[in-house]
Amino acid sequence: IPVAVGILILLVWYLRCRSTKLEFIGHDLILETGLLSKNRTELHVRSIRTVNVYQTFANRIFGVGKIAIYTAGDDPEIEVTGLPDPHDLREMVKKEQLQHHAR
Predict the structure, then answer these.
(1) Is pLDDT of 4 > 90?
(2) If we measure between CA atoms, which residue out of 27, 20, 21, 17 comes closest to residue 93?
(3) Where is 84: in which H helix or E strand?
(4) Contact present, 21 and 35 (Cβ < 8 Å)
(5) What is the DSSP secondary-structure string of 43-67?
(6) What is the pLDDT of residues 13-70, one digit of tens each?
């Protein structure tokens, strides 16, 4: 039974990873979630106010973390857990914002 539980946990994790896509397209950060039905959130990089990265000790060891992106208010517009290299995404947002302001 412990092996079956372990396989089930890995399967859920795999499906969750396959059903979440976060990417830059132009000046927009786009989050798509879902396998059969899709949910899509688009944020223009100019509207992003704060990018928070949360990592436990174990997250840092495995190079993953949780990212929360805020535009206005107290609730994040985008929140993704288990994201590989979350600091890289934060740096990409900052770089894109700097390039946008330089124009």
Answers:
(1) no
(2) 27
(3) strand 78-84
(4) no
(5) EEGGG--EEEEE--HHHHHHTEEEE
(6) 777 767 788 888 888 999 998 888 889 999 999 899 999 999 999 889 988 899 999 9
What is the C-alpha to C-alpha distance for residues 5 and 101, in angstroms, rounded to an integer?
A: 50
Cα gap 5→8, rounded to integer Å: 5
Name the one residue in this structure whose structure tokens are 């372990």.
6
Phi/psi region, residue 19 (left: phi>0; alpha: psi -120 to 50; beta: rest), is alpha
pLDDT exceeds 70 at position 103: no
Instruction: Give the span between the Cα atoms of 103 and 38, in whole angstroms.
Output: 34
State residue 2's pLDDT score. Answer: 81
**Per-residue pLDDT for 75 more than 90?**
yes
Report helix, strand or coil for 38: coil
Question: Which helix (H) or strand (E) covers residue 18, if one does?
Answer: helix 2-18
The answer to whether the beta carbons of residues 77 and 43 sit under 8 Å apart is yes
